[in-house]
Every structure is written in C-alpha cells, then in structure tokens.
C-alpha cells in the first residue's frame, strides 16, 4: 500500500483505507487469516472482543510484528471496540486492558464504542431475564465517552470513535466531547450507501468505516429472497470492464469516497484480492451509478423487543424499527 491509500483522521494520523475485518472469523482460521493479510500488505486489522477471537489474533500479531520480524507495530493500525456490557465508566479501562492483553499489544490505534446502548453490567455478553428478553442498563453513552477520553490521556489508545451511532447520537457526543470522535463505523455497501450519514461525518471531521461492505454473504441468517449484492448486474458489468471481481469494484467505490472498508475473509486468495483495488479508478459517472444502487437495504438487522424509551436510546439508524439482538455482534 502506498501513502495515497490512507484516510487522515482529525488527529493527523493515517488510517489505511482497506483493512481486514474479523467478525465471524472462526477460531482456528482467524490467526492464519491475519497472517495472510499482513503478508499481503494489509496494515489495518479490525477487531472486537465480542467476536470471540482476539486472543488468536494476538497470536498472529506476536508472530508477525516486532523487532526483526519485518513489520513494525507502529506500521499496523489496530482497531477494537467496547462491548455493551462495559459502558459503565468504571468498566471502560478494564475492558480495554483485557483487549490489549488478548491482542498482545501495548496500545490500540482506535477504540470504538461498539453500540450506543448499554446492557446490564457484568461478564455475560447478552444478559437476559428468565423470559429470554435482554437486560439493559440506562447508563448515558456520554458518560462512557468521558471514560474513553481518559484512555487517550493514558496513552492506551491513540484515537477513539463510535460504531452504529446515528447522526443525532454523534451530535450528542460532540456536544460534550473534550476529545472528538475520529471515526464512525457502520454497515455500508451499494445497497446501503449512507450518503447522508457520510456527509454528516465529513462535516464534523469523522472518517467513516464500512463494515459488511460486500453484503455479509456468509451470514447464517440469510433470507433466501434477499438481494445478493455480489450478483448485482451493474457491478458485474464494471467488474468485466476493469477485469476485476465484483468485490474489488465495491471496495474501490468505497475507497474513492474516502470510506475505510474492512472486508472479512479467511480465504487467502480473497484476502489478497480485496486489497488489490488501488491500480484502477472508477469514472465519476460509474461512481454515481454504484451509489444509485442504494435501496436502504440492511443485511445486519438485529431484532430486539424493548420499551419505547429503550428503543429511542438503542436505535443506530431506524428509530421506528423493532430490532432483535440475535445477531448483534457487529
């Protein structure tokens, strides 16, 4: 990757436009995937404790990074996230320290609040009542943010940011922030272009990161009638024109918009392909053509039954939608 393949955070630091996502990357496979990624030129790895694989990713870091190993720690951008049960200010630093221990790192380049809502404190990732409904906490995410800011002062993280927050919630954080969020990570792909949210972020100095950028085709809960992004004819036509894969066209569309993209794969050939997107440029009308595929389609739509007040606090994008938390790990 060249220096042109980065976005610049408000802190002045660079974040590689393509990173390796690790959500749904199984134990026994994720370590090798991270090693292949680093060998293929990736310098950005996206992690989270709820993915259940940070310890194995740490083993890959230990093998690949450090003096005399060819890759310096300071050249790899590592992101992780604070889970919903750890929003209480007293839990923020211990949660980060656990992630650092698992990843075998002394600091993170970026630490995100994973979701804007909080679950009941504790070590059960999805705390539930006897009837199976989730147990929530009413801790204000602005208090969580204040605790996140302290991590920067201690040198434990280089930057902090948000994930799955909407425009109003971003403004909430900005209204109290001493250290502003640098990144917003959300689902984004041609069927969910996030044009308005991207503009909101740009206006406020946040870089957007797109998760599930290829439509998350390996989800266990796929609906047989859902649209298949990688089979979209307009994208297939561009792939043929540029002699690229549909995935490469989609990733290139995001990077040309200045959106950081973190496709997940544990397949060596796809890991290599997904970063080979900087040797061609889509024409402006082709960029517009891909953006016009937007249909407001979310592949990552967890369902939660909650009270009205909790719903308002929870929803990252659709305040009127009812979510269930079966899939809420991204």
UniProtKB/TrEMBL annotation:
Positions contributing to substrate binding: 114
GO terms under cellular component: apical plasma membrane; cytosol
Site feature (Lowers pKa of active site Tyr) residues: 81
Cell membrane as UniProt keyword: yes
InterPro entries associated with the record: AKR (IPR020471), AKR1A (IPR044481), Aldo/ket_reductase_CS (IPR018170), NAD(P)_OxRdtase_dom_sf (IPR036812), NADP_OxRdtase_dom (IPR023210)
UniProt EC number: 1.1.1.2
GO MF term list: alcohol dehydrogenase (NADP+) activity
Compartmental location: Apical cell membrane; Cytoplasm, Cytosol
Active site: 51
Alphabetic keyword roster: Cell membrane, Cytoplasm, Membrane, NADP, Oxidoreductase
Presence of keyword Acyltransferase: no
Annotated SUPFAM superfamilies: NAD(P)-linked oxidoreductase
Main function: Catalyzes the NADPH-dependent reduction of a wide variety of carbonyl-containing compounds to their corresponding alcohols. Displays enzymatic activity towards endogenous metabolites such as aromatic and aliphatic aldehydes, ketones, monosaccharides and bile acids. Acts as an aldehyde-detoxification enzyme. Also acts as an inhibitor of protein S-nitrosylation by mediating degradation of S-nitroso-coenzyme A (S-nitroso-CoA), a cofactor required to S-nitrosylate proteins. Also acts as a S-nitroso-glutathione reductase by catalyzing the NADPH-dependent reduction of S-nitrosoglutathione.
Assigned protein family: Belongs to the aldo/keto reductase family.
Protein name: alcohol dehydrogenase (NADP(+))
Source organism per UniProt: Cyprinus carpio carpio
């Amino acid at each position: 990757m060249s220096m042109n393949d980065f976005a610049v955070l408000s802190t002045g630091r660079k974040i590689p436009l393509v990173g390796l996502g690790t959500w749904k990357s199984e134990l026994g496979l994720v370590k090798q995937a991270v090693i292949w990624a680093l060998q293929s030129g990736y310098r950005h790895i996206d992690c989270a404790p709820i993915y259940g694989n940070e310890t194995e990713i740490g083993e890959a870091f230990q093998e690949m990074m450090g003096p005399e190993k060819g890759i310096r720690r300071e050249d790899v951008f590592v992101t992780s996230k604070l889970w919903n049960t750890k929003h209480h200010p007293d839990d923020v630093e211990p949660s980060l320290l656990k992630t650092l221990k698992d990843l075998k790192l002394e600091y993170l380049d970026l630490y995100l609040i994973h979701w804007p809502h909080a679950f009941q404190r504790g070590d059960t990732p999805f705390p539930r009542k006897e009837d199976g409904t989730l147990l929530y906490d009413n801790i204000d995410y602005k208090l969580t943010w204040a605790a996140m800011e302290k991590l920067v002062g201690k040198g434990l993280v280089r930057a902090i940011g948000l994930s799955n927050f909407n425009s109003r919630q971003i403004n909430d954080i900005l209204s109290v922030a001493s250290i502003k969020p640098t990144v917003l990570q959300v689902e984004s792909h041609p069927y969910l272009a996030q044009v308005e949210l991207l503009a909101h972020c740009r206006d406020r100095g946040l870089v957007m990161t797109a998760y599930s950028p290829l439509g998350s085709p390996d989800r266990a809960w796929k609906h047989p009638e859902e649209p298949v992004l990688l089979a979209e004819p307009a994208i297939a036509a561009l792939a043929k024109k540029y002699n690229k894969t549909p995935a490469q066209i989609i990733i290139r569309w995001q990077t040309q918009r200045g959106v950081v993209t973190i496709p997940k794969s544990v397949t060596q050939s796809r890991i290599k392909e997904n970063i080979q997107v900087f040797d061609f440029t889509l024409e402006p009308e082709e960029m517009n053509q891909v953006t016009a595929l937007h249909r407001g389609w979310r592949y990552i739509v967890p369902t939660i039954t909650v009270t009205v007040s909790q719903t308002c606090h929870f929803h990252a994008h659709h305040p009127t939608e009812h979510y269930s938390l079966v899939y809420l790990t991204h």
